[in-house]
Amino acid sequence: MPQPFTDDALAPPIPPAPEDVHSRVIDWFSEAARDLPWRRPECTPWGVLVSEIMLQQTPVVRVLPRWEDWMHRWPTPGACAAAPQSEILIVWDRLGYPRRALRLQAAAEAIVERHDGAVPADPQALRALPGIGEYTAAAVACFAFGIPEVVVDTNIRRAHARIFTGAALPGQTYTAAQRRLARDLMPATDDDGGRRACAWNASSMELGALICTARSPQCAICPVADLCAWRAAGSPPPTEEQKTRGQAWAGTDRQVRGAIMAVLRGGEPVDAEALLAGLPLPEADDEQRRRCLETLVADGLAQRRGDVVTLPGVL
Ligand code: SF4
Which chain positions lie within coiled-coil regions (predicted)? Predict the structure, then answer.
């Protein structure tokens, strides 16, 4: 297990040598990494892709049961592509941002059509799938196929910012300078075909998720405490530009849409007026309720025929 560092540790060089940080973080990961099903050797590239889509803006603890259920029902892209949309949305349950579920199914359909049902390893081919952005393509290439793409999520951006630039937080936007830093920090791939680079991606992401968290970094047990530029600078608070906006939930359209979807996931056709009137959100006025139902229909997450509303494909 990593040894705790004390406050009187020697002041580090600023910024630290990337190789030193790589070794510490990768060694820490080998001991401390969570045992997640999509990290196990037997997990398929499809399982990795499903996990990456589900984990977008969603905590691991909420994803785990949904991922298990999804992979049990649809262990291959072909099985997912053939499933009714309504079932896809029911199994997505309350993971939030349910358009991700439909995009994941669209990606499965494209994998069947373009790649004979096998998730492609090539990052460009991954990027060309519906709903797959730069991050997800890089993460699947790296974690499923061992291809040393530069993987940068919010956890990695925060760890990079603190360790190497001394910033408290990386800010809202993924800047060109951060992109350069992430690329420059990647371990060389000449000697090992990229194994260390992929280990760096996974381990720095885990460090950001478990130790170098946004609100309360656990510097006392951090494996790079004596190398960290932010800590060496006295752990200054974030500037206004570095702060991220918290995502409100109560009173938002997201909350109202979520409440409508919760009713529709019952799987039965419902009367639109009764549905809207019965939402347990007293602060949501009639206009907001109607607007949210309309946007769900426009997004393909709900279907309306006259007075009746259902999940897509039910009527
Ligand atoms: S010492 Fe603290 S701020 Fe620096 S990387 Fe570790 S947890 Fe993050």
Answer: none
Please report whether residue 210 resides in a domain: no
Q: How far is the CA of 93 from the centre of ligand 1 (A)?
A: 35
To test the pocket of ligand 1, the residue of 157, 230, 235 to mutate (highest count of ligand atoms within 8 Å of its CB) is 230
Q: What is the pTM of this model?
A: 0.91
The confidence band for 186, taking pLDDT boundaries of 50, 70 and 90, is very high
**Mean pLDDT (whole number) for 175-184:** 96
Looking up tokens 């999940």, which residue turns up?
311
Q: Atom 8 (ligand 1): residue with closest C-alpha?
A: 212
163 lines ligand 1 (CB under 6 A): yes
CA distance 64 to 308: 34
User: Which residue, 49, 106, 64, is CA-closest to 83?
Assistant: 106
Start-to-end CA distance of the chain, whole Å, equals 56
Q: Is the shortest distance between the CB of 224 and ligand 1 below 6 Å?
A: yes
Percent of the chain with pLDDT over 90: 89
Q: The domain that contains 124 carries what CATH number?
A: 1.10.340.30
Asked whether the beta carbons of 20 and 227 are under 8 A apart, the reply is yes
Would the CB of 230 count as within 6 Å of ligand 1?
yes
Please state the rounded mean pLDDT for residues 119-135: 97
Domain's final residue, options 99, 118, 145 = 145
Q: Examine the residue annotation and report whether 52 is marked as an active-site residue of this protein.
A: yes
Least confident of 6-10, 103-107, 208-212: 6-10
Structural domain includes residue 97: yes
**Does some domain include residue 291?**
yes
> Is the shortest distance between the CB of 219 and ligand 1 below 6 Å?
yes
Last residue of a domain, one of 87, 112, 145: 145
